[in-house]
Amino acid sequence: MAEISAFFHDGTGSVSYLVADSDTNKAAIIDPVLDYDPSSGRITTDFAERLVSTIRERKLSIDWILETHVHADHLSAAQILKARLGGKVGIGAQVRQVQTHWAKVFNIEHEFDTQAKHFDVLFENNALHAIGGLSFKVIHTPGHTPADVAYLIGDAAFVGDALFMPDYGTARTDFPGGSAKDLYHSIQRILALPPATRLFSGHDYLTAGRTTHAWESTVHQQKNSNIHVHDGITEENFVALREARDARLSLPNLIFPSVQTNIRAGHPPPPEPNGTRYLKTPLASISPDSSDHGV
Predict the structure, then answer these.
(1) Which of 64, 77, 143, 154 is in Cβ range 3.0-4.6 Å of 32 for a Cys bridge?
(2) What pLDDT is stored for residue 295 in this prediction?
(3) pLDDT the model gives residue 209
(4) How confident is the model over 212-270, as pLDDT tens digits?
């Protein structure tokens, strides 16, 4: 039997999950978060320590650290947790496409090869793996990014950013390689699961009508009331709505530190010759004769 525990990260609105097989005490961690203060560049592990404490209290053994995608709003704690608890770090195989794009942005192409070596396992669509006596299936769900996946474990699906709570809607699709059309079809695959399937989202952002954070819904609830993609919403409707909404969104505050850490599976950038690690921020191009030089 799968025992599911959720851990909410206030700073980023992210949710990390611990999924344990009660018969074997084997477990997986999904989408772990590392604390990062952009004003000081300080990385801390307070949130990750909550996971470590729970895992040790319950005497669990970690088989997997699973990422639903390369996150753009928080740094992954995958390597911190792997060092402390063991386990293999897995992500969708299409992460190579995400790495290729962002490696060019940060001018770090020399670090990457076609094997996506920073991750332990790259999951193909419909791949089957195990957490102790539990089986999990990998479902490729592109749209938010090309590499998004959901993990189906028994009657529970961990859907990352594809679907939020019904009153908030769906993921943005304006990141490199994102596609509103792809997201629509990915969501339809999720919503084709049995109506009672529990869906666990990667974030929660409060709406005007709700004051308590939530992250669990069902296929039935999403089909009935998701504000973006409930039953009756056509692909054309959804694409028009999603693209119009995306055009008004600003970039996540932590996109640059997050992405350049997370394409490395949670490894920080390597130290430079002076022994210090640096996170890069690419500057937008400006005209040499512009009066506004960004100061």
Answers:
(1) 77
(2) 31
(3) 83
(4) 999 999 999 999 999 999 999 999 999 999 999 999 999 999 999 999 999 999 999 99
The counts of H helices and E strands in the chain are: 7, 15
Contacts of 135 (CB under 8 A, 6+ apart): 128, 129, 153
Query: Please, what's the b/e burial string for 185-206 (b: 16 or more CB within 10 A of its CB; e: otherwise)?
Result: ebbeebbebeeebbbbbbbbee
Quote the pTM value. 0.94
C-alpha closest to that of 171 among 204, 122, 133: 204
The pLDDT assigned to 20 comes to: 98
Distances (CA, A) of 61 to 23, 151, 239: 12, 19, 42
Find out whether 1 and 20 touch, Cβ atoms under 8 Å. no
Number of CB atoms found within 10 A of residue 174's CB: 15
How far is 64 from 17, CA to CA, in rounded Å?
12
CB-neighbour burial class of residue 87 (10 A; exposed 0-12, middle 13-18, buried 19+): buried
* Residue whose structure tokens are 């970039």: 251
Identify whether the C-beta of residue 139 lies closer than 8 Å to the C-beta of residue 189. Answer: yes
Mean of the per-residue pLDDT values of the chain: 94
User: What superfamily would CATH give domain 2-253?
Assistant: Ribonuclease Z/Hydroxyacylglutathione hydrolase-like (3.60.15.10)
- The residues spanned by each domain of the chain are 2-253
CA pair distance 274, 78, nearest whole angstrom: 26
What does the block give as tokens for 187?
């969501």
Place of tokens 């102790």: 132
Question: Where would I find the H helices in the chain?
Answer: 46-57, 78-85, 95-105, 180-191, 219-225, 235-246, 255-262
At 105, phi and psi to the nearest 5? -60, -45
